[in-house]
Amino acid sequence: MKAPGRLRQMLMRASAMVLSLLGGLGAMISVLTLIDPIGAQMADDAHPFAMPSGPGESWLHLVVSLALSGLGLFLHRRSAQAA
Length: 83
Prior knowledge:
Elements: H1 2-35, H2 37-40, H3 55-82
Helix pairs in contact: 1-3
């Protein structure tokens, strides 16, 4: 009976680490696009001289990334308390 609980705890820790890392990476990228939107724009052959997206999209990306990172930290704490 211990195996399903242990497996659940391992999956929760793994998903917590993935969410925290991806959320942190996304937050760093969105801060970079807020600081320097033209320098952070990727190459686009279809629209080579297009203007970068506005700051609203970067702020939305930052909020979503921080929410994912926060969810990962919450899952990590919850799995640590269950141990």
